[in-house]
Amino acid sequence: MRLWRWVLLLVVVAALAAFGWHWVAEDPGYVLLRMRGWRVETTVVAAIVILLLTWALLSLLWRSLRWPFGAFSRRHRRLSQQRLGEGLVALIEGRHGDAERDLNRAARLASLRGPALLACAEAASRRGEYGRALESLDQAAQAAPQAARVLRARLLRREGKPAAALALLAPESDKGTLTPGGWRELALAALESGDLRRARAALEPLHKSGALGGRAYATLEAQVLAATLHAAPDGAALNTLWSRLPKVQRRVPAVIDAYARRASAFGLVLPAMDEVESALRREWSPRLIETYGTLVGDDVEARLRRAEGWLDAHPNDASLLLTLGRMCVRLKLWGKAHQYLQRSLALAPSPTAWEVLGDAFAGPGDAAQAQRCYRNALAFGRGEAVTPLVQRTPPGQPDTQPIAIEARDVHGVPRLRE
Fold this sequence. Notes:
Order of helices and strands: HEEHHHHHHHHHHHHHHHHHHH
Radius of gyration: 37 Å
Distance between the termini: 57 Å
Shape: elongated
Number of strands: 2
CATH superfamily of the domain at 298-389: Tetratricopeptide repeat domain
CATH topology of the domain at 298-389: Serine Threonine Protein Phosphatase 5, Tetratricopeptide repeat
Strand content: under 5%
Number of helices: 20
Helix content: over 70%
Oligomer: single chain
CATH architecture of the domain at 298-389: Alpha Horseshoe
């Protein structure tokens, strides 16, 4: 198809050229130039050709004259671009001193001044040279004011001054002219400084910009919403805030976790249970199942039976086993608590599991094992080695503790070992 178009175009051009030449050949025109006794006669076509050739020769002569003078500027531009590249590579590699040196040199070229100074400020900040970073930002603000403002807010937040970063970005946020990076810094600064209203207001423009990936935005959104729920002053305000959240946000596990824990603190146990159980029916979440075991209330036996029913479909979920062990401790079912908690530790050791196992030993009065578990909880939290428990199997009785972990699919059907 494209070949036929080119052929058709060439035919049309050839036809126009033929008709044009025939039209010019009939009357080529006449040009007379007379000056100080000189007399030049020619046709219009020849005059146009002479003018074009003269213009081409003059352009070539002008470029030839300018070439020696432009060689220095071309070399300067090439070296500046090379230094910018080397400075960025050094910044990524962690050679911040080299990066700052190369980027300062690259900033001498006007076209590279903005990005080079911004990267130089980042390098100085990573070196701990906060004053030099601010100096570079002051210079970069002349070439890239918005980018310099966002980076300055980021440096302020890193220095533990989120309120100053928020005050820097607030005027532009009120006008709605912040860049995507500015909205993200505004949300983080507002979150750290406790201005949750501004943090929530920054989510919508940030989501519309699409600057953050889906996972990064979901994490930030969950942090902001969870902090907002935790800051609710009473149960009525908490329920009002929860009811105003969009349905999509009320299905985020971290947000449900924050609501359930805050509602339980206000004595709203049933609404908290309903939200957690509804979420677990929709999608299994180890985080929510652990929350399920920490909620207060007098219906622990009913919750234990319900959670043990989930064990068929999730036999190797360490969070579920930890929840079962915690509820058994509350019901003083010490034997079952030991089984659940030791299996949870075999699957995924954690300080919390060691601590709850210590409670399970402390309840019936085994102080030595309880102290060992508490020490293991502290050691595990510090990244140190834990001390194995003393297995007290009666003489002549085999050790019946499981040595293999059963694996099942999402429907509870056991999988064959490969």
